[in-house]
Design brief:
By secondary structure, this protein is of the alpha+beta class. It has 30 helices and 31 strands. The protein binds adenosine-5'-diphosphate and magnesium ion. The site of adenosine-5'-diphosphate has 20 residues, from helix 4 and strand 5. One of its GO terms (biological process) is endocytosis.
């Protein structure tokens, strides 16, 4: 159920000033103060919200707060700007009424902040979605941009808006924002060139210099130091709690979100920089021959840089600061400017540049945020205009601002009263007129087309001849002298001639909010707002897209000799449009009040607040509101709130709410004049009555609370008791069940034990019986088996006995027959049978022996195995058979030989015959095949010549060592043996050293030892013998000698060569015969054979012992 609350709950003071009792200025301010001290900064006067500036951030603008106020009735929660915003937004969405929110109050009272809260609230509660969010974001982000360019620090407010702003937010039928339109009013442009003490220029200048990167500043030809610029007053260049650099980033970001292009931003910054540069241009006088002074630019550097920034030709601008062209009646005249005029021109240019840039910015933002559809829109306007201003020194700007505030006050008066009246009519309640101060008369003083101050000013400005501020004042003194609200020392009626508070050059207006003294100085100029045409033309010529747009009147093609409308005229017109616009909408008021002049939290200056309360006409507002009936409320919420005060309406009233309220009030005996029944609302005349109702309600609520507590406690105890009772039953039931279960389980298990015992006993008995029966059966079969066995054995014994007897009989019979036969044939057997048995036996043995030889031993001739002899008497046969078999298999083996192999074997045989058991070297040669050629004669190209020398087939070719006869050392020689001769040749060259025909060879001598020495002995007297015998040595001695021997054996025409095998033989060396002696022993040089010449007669060869 939704909780119904009311503004009246937990009130501090009264939330709605209408309820104040008694109503007086003191109680009014007392109430504001009390609420302010409790951080309750909002208070209502009916539907108007009074807002006190807390000068500190309060936790009342959170998302939760937004949710709290969303879709709630205006009086349901404590006063808040959100309640007003919600009310406005809902009546816009649901009742299709265009709304405007008018925020008024003096500078620093919190108008701009309030307007931002309203906008952010509406943004938070209205539709969502990508497109809608973008629109919202753009609308919200337009604020920082405009604030940077249009706000400045003043003595009253660190972030004072120096322009008026009215923003229309447009919604579609669903209440989703579509876009917006911003209008700006009269930027205080004089601030660009001069700021009052303790104030600053517009924020953007400081933000740019502190926040821009070095690079950007360089591009803009700027210096970070504020003191370098004449237009930036130095005494309050920095503001506490304001971070200009951070703000610059915020502004850049906001510009991006709103949709400014990079080059646009750059152009804007260039213009800002140009204004700063412009301020630095100074002039000096230069005398001319005609006696006039002409101004000249002092230091041209700043001028040059500014011209570079804006793309202006320097000479054009320079000239525009020295000369002025006056056009009259198709004639052009050039007049010189003196230094003062040059400064005036410079400042006028700076002000115009800046204010036009600002207007351009507003238009550019409008272009971005304008609604994209043409369909019908609902509009919520938020007006945040500069507040009423009273300074020490008030000029044209204050006059204009205060005029604007007068107009707003008028709207306020008109609309509130009209609204009030309309409500009474709507509700059918009689209306009695109320007196209040209507400021229409002041508005008239200012804006009257005939003799209003603004009209007079325009008249003066347009008048030919010398026009000064003084002539203007004179004019006022005559025209407005009679006006009640106009005061001037020189006025025609001389009322104020002795009033010394009124200086001569001033006039005073009694505004609704107080008297304000205006100094006339500058009025004419400011109203004229003149910019010399030469300057606007110079600007138009600039090669800078933005500047060109800002000075369209500089276009020579569009020269317009008509004066542009004056500032006052323009303002009046735009205020007029604004008023018309506001009047067409449903107004919602936020009236801002500042509690002190120090911008400090917690300080409440009574006099200051009192002054504001007075000029804002708040007391009158309350009075008007209370004139008829102080409080009104729809019947339903009223009945809902007070129904407990009467038995008939409590707790439920069945009929219509109005009837209920009637019954209620009658029952409470409220005097009839204290209230009136409207169509949908009850109107209560006095707050007293309301408080009486409230008090009654409070008491009743206490009683009701006690009753509720009583009933609740009773109910709670009873339910607790019932719960206990119920639980007890449940517990008991469970316990009983559990106990019975346990008992049953016991009985059951006992029965089972019994049962099992009985069954066991029965089973055992049965088993016993069965076992007995089985044993009996087994005994029977055993007994019968034994019996049958015994019987069978008896039978077997009997049968065996019988068979034995039978066999014995036949054996005895056979033995007797044998004996009988042997006795008969013994005489024949001895003569014949012996030889026959012997022959037969021998034959059988031989047969068996030969059959046994069927499996032969291997066919290898070297296999010596032979089966063992089976019978001793066959020994001879067995050996013979072995020999025959061996011969046979040798024959078989030989028959496989080729001729070549046969020759080889023959040579081996010959070697064996020659050396076996005669020379120790022989056994090692048996396994070596006789290859013959070991030096590969034919293949080796080295021996080609040698090859051609020997004609026959070479039988042996080997390297031998020829023993030197003198010292017994060996030298390698090739040894060749053919059928006819032997040849010795040099091993390296193959050159023949000696060739001996075989017939010249007589014998060969070798030792019995294991050495390779052999001596070739030649026949005495033969041709070869001249050199003497050869003593050679070769490892293949056996092969060489055997081959030599075999040649001798095969050739029939020659004698065999003798082979002497002896350890001592003689060798013929030329003339001497030398004895070669072989001895066994260990030679000193290793294992080899050593040969040594011992003396003339002896050559000793020592052979290692085997
Ligand atoms: N509701 C508020 N909560 C906190 N501070 C506020 C509030 N309203 C105003 N202020 C403070 O007062 C200053 C001036 O408010 P501002 O809205 O700029 O005044 P105005 O627009 O009326 O001249 C703000 O800068 C802010 O510091
Ligand atoms: Mg402001």
């Amino acid at each position: 159920m939704e909780v119904k609350t009311s503004l009246l709950d937990n009130m501090i003071g009264v939330g709605d000033m209408v309820l104040i009792e008694p109503l007086s200025e003191d109680t009014f301010i007392e109430n504001l103060k009390k609420r302010f001290d409790h951080n309750e900064i909002y208070t209502y006067i009916g539907s108007v919200v009074i807002s006190m500036n807390p000068y500190k951030s309060l936790p009342i603008y959170t998302a939760e707060k937004v949710e709290e106020y969303r879709n709630r009735n205006f009086y349901e929660l404590s006063p808040h700007v959100y309640a007003l915003a919600d009310e406005a937004y809902r009546s816009l969405r649901e009742q299709d009424k265009d709304q405007c929110i008018l925020i008024t109050g003096e500078s620093g009272a919190g108008k701009t902040e309030a307007s931002k809260f309203v906008m952010s609230y509406v943004a938070a509660v209205c539709g969502k979605g990508q497109e809608v969010n973008k629109v919202k974001e753009q609308l919200l982000q337009s604020n920082p941009v405009l604030e940077a360019f249009g706000n400045a620090k003043t003595v009253r407010n660190d972030n004072s808006s120096r322009f008026g702003k009215y923003m229309d937010i447009e919604f579609d039928f669903k209440g989703d924002p579509l876009g917006g339109v911003i209008s700006n009013y009269l930027l205080e442009k004089s601030r660009v060139v001069k700021q009052p003490r303790g104030e600053r220029n517009f924020h953007i200048f400081y933000q740019l210099l502190s926040g821009a990167s070095d690079d950007t500043l360089k591009k803009l030809k700027l210096d970070r130091d504020f003191s370098k610029y004449n237009y930036l007053s130095l005494d309050s260049a920095t503001v506490n709690g304001l971070d200009d650099a951070a703000s610059f980033r915020t502004v850049r970001n906001a510009m991006q979100i709103v949709g400014f292009m990079e080059d646009e931003v750059q152009s804007i910054l260039e213009l800002v920089a140009a204004v700063l540069k412009l301020g630095n241009i100074e002039f000096k006088p230069e005398s001319r021959c005609n006696g006039y002074d002409e101004s000249r630019v002092k230091d041209k550097n700043d001028l040059k840089e500014m011209c570079e920034l804006l793309g202006i030709e320097q000479s054009v601008l320079e000239r525009a600061f020295s000369f002025r062209t006056v056009e009259a009646k198709m004639e052009k005249m050039s007049t010189t400017l003196n230094v003062a005029q040059a400064y005036y021109a410079r400042d006028a240019l700076a002000k115009n540049l800046y204010s036009r840039l600002f207007s351009w910015l507003v238009n550019r933002i409008n272009e971005s945020i304008k609604a994209q559809t043409k369909s019908r829109k609902k509009v919520m306007g938020v007006l945040d205009i500069y507040g009423f201003e009273i300074f020490e020194d008030n000029s044209f700007e204050q006059f204009i601002i205060n005029y604007c505030n007068e107009k707003l006050q008028q709207i306020f008066i008109e609309l509130t009263l009209r609204e009030e009246q309309e409500e009474y009519v709507r509700e059918g309640i009689e209306w009695t007129n109320i007196e209040y101060f209507n400021n229409a008369i002041i508005c008239d003083l200012i804006e009257n087309n005939k003799n209003g101050i603004l009209a007079m000013l325009d008249e003066e400005c347009l008048r030919p001849g010398t026009v000064t501020d003084e002539t203007f004042l004179d004019k006022l003194n005559t025209v407005c002298a009679e006006h009640q609200h106009f005061e001037s020392r020189q006025s025609k009626n001389s009322k104020f001639l002795t009033d010394h508070s009124l200086p001569h050059n001033c006039f005073r207006i009694q505004h609704y909010a107080g008297k304000v003294l205006y100094r006339v100085e500058g009025f004419v100029d400011k109203n004229n707002d003149l910019l010399y045409r030469d300057l606007s033309q110079a600007m138009y010529k600039a090669n800078h897209s933005l500047i060109k747009i800002l000075f369209p009147e500089g276009n020579p093609a569009k020269v317009n000799l008509k004066r542009p409308p004056t500032a006052g005229f323009q303002f009046k017109a735009s205020v007029g449009t604004l008023m018309k616009n506001l009047l067409s909408k449903n107004p919602n008021y936020i009236r801002c009040i500042k509690p002190n002049d120090k911008k400090a939290a917690h300080i409440f200056t009574d006099s200051l607040v009192c002054h504001q309360v007075r000029y804002l006409g708040l007391m009158e507002n309350v009075r008007v509101r209370r004139a008829g009936y102080a409080f009104r409320q729809a019947y339903e919420p009223c009945l809902e709130r007070y129904k407990m005060l009467c038995k008939q309406t409590w707790p439920h009233w069945k009929g219509p709410a109005r009837g209920g309220v009637e019954v209620l009030l009658t029952d409470l005996q409220v005097p009839a004049e204290e209230f009136a029944y409207g169509r949908s609302k009850i109107f209560i005349r006095n707050p007293r009555t309301l408080f009486f109702l409230e008090e009654k309600r409070r008491q009743c609520l206490e009683d009701l609370a006690t009753l509720i507590q009583k009933i609740y406690r009773g109910w709670k105890s009873r339910t607790h008791f019932l719960l206990l009772k119920k639980s007890q039953v449940v517990v008991a039931a469970w316990y009983r069940r559990f106990a019975q279960q346990k008992k049953y389980q016991n009985i059951r298990s006992s029965a089972l034990v019994f049962q099992s015992f009985i069954r066991g006993w029965k089973a055992r008995k049965l088993l016993r019986e069965l076992k007995h029966k089985k044993r009996c059966e087994k005994a029977v079969s055993t007994i019968s088996a034994y019996w049958h066995g015994t019987q069978a054995r008896w039978e077997l014994r009997r049968l065996k006995e019988e068979a034995r007897n039978k066999h014995a009989v036949s054996v005895i019979w056979a033995a007797w027959l044998g004996t009988k036969v042997r006795r008969e044939y013994r005489k024949f057997f001895r003569a014949n049978a012996g030889k026959k048995i012997y022959d037969f036996t021998i034959q059988r043995i031989m047969q068996k022996y030969f059959l046994g030889l069927k499996k032969m031993p291997s066919m290898s001739p070297v296999d010596k195995s032979w089966p063992a002899r089976p019978y001793g008497f066959l020994d001879g046969t067995h050996q013979e058979l072995r020999r025959i078999f061996h011969l046979w298999r040798c024959k078989k083996y030989r028959s496989q030989f080729t001729e070549e192999k046969k020759a080889t074997y023959e040579e081996k045989l010959a070697a064996s015959e020659l050396f076996k058991d005669k020379k120790a070297l022989y056994p090692s040669s048996v396994g070596q095949p006789f290859k013959g050629d070991y030096v590969e004669m034919t293949k080796n190209p080295k021996y080609q010549k040698l090859n051609s020398f020997v004609e026959d087939k070479v039988l042996v070719a080997d390297v031998v060592s020829k023993i030197n006869r003198a010292n017994g050392k060996g030298a390698p020689r090739i040894f060749l043996l053919t059928k006819k001769s032997l040849v010795l040749a040099d091993q390296k060259t193959g050159q023949v050293k000696a060739s001996v025909p075989l017939p010249d060879l007589s014998s060969v001598s070798v030792s019995t030892q294991n050495d390779g020495f052999f001596a070739l002995k030649l026949k005495e007297g033969s041709t070869s013998a001249a050199k003497g015998d050869f003593l050679l040595s070769s490892d293949r001695l056996i092969e060489i000698i055997t081959k030599l021997h075999c040649i001798g054996a095969t050739s029939a025409d020659r004698n065999k060569i003798n082979i002497d095998i002896s350890d001592e033989f003689l060798v013929q060396f030329k003339q001497d015969k030398v004895c070669v002696k072989f001895i066994q022993g260990t030679p000193k040089n290793g294992n080899g054979v050593a040969c040594k010449r011992k003396n003339n007669r002896l050559l000793e060869v020592s052979v290692p012992s085997p």
